[in-house]
Fold this sequence. Notes:
Elements: H1 15-21, E1 24-29, H2 31-48, E2 55-60, H3 64-71, E3 79-86, E4 99-102, E5 112-120, H4 124-134, E6 140-148, E7 161-165, E8 171-172, E9 188-191, H5 193-196
Parallel strand pairs: 2-3, 2-5, 5-6, 6-7
Antiparallel strand pairs: 1-9, 3-4, 8-9
The structure holds inosinic acid.
Residues 62, 87-88, 94, 117-126, 170-172, 176 line the site of inosinic acid.
Amino acid sequence: MSNISQPFRPHSLGPDMHASEADIESILLSAAQIQARVAEMGAQISRDYEGREPVFISVLVGAFMFTSDLLRHVTVPCSLDFMAISSYGQESRSSGVVRVMKDLDESIESKHVIILEDIIDTGLTLNYLLENLRNRNAASVRVAALLDKPSRRLTDVSVDYVGFEVPDEFVIGYGLDFAQRYRNFPYVGVLRPEVYGGK
Length: 199
Ligand code: IMP
């Protein structure tokens, strides 16, 4: 029988989980660091949107964890919609080819929109998204991203709320994946380059 006094270790639940954690080179942002920063971002957004009712657009799948944690700290009335975008597939680098897999359920006309992204890397995905939303006549559009890799930017996109700047490493965890894995990790880690065939 399992000993219930043992601390819960989320990544030791099975052989596959053990294998996954061995793929991590280092932990870049701990779960506690992320939680503290996301709470600050929620408070900041709540102050900035006092008297307004923003619509959050969460970009699936990568932003799902950021979205659910951030919204717990938003104190103004708000709503949430999702957009699913295909980006890398099995690749670890942006192809610049973006496809909308799921569009918004509601109109954003005259609404104050805040796009929630996991990471802005080259900026191509965000650029595409902003273009895509441009004709829908929102009252305003801002962007909140958990992570920003400014050194890799290929387009000039402005990000209004940034959780953390990260170096040019392939990172996973807290919603971010490589080949659909690692999204469940509560921290952000650097993936060993040999796992994705990188440098
Ligand atoms: P961009 O179009 O190059 O800015 O890439 C944006 C998308 O690529 C993000 O929303 C992520 O889904 C993915 N991405 C970029 N860098 C990383 C990374 O280091 N780890 C995991 N996914 C990433």
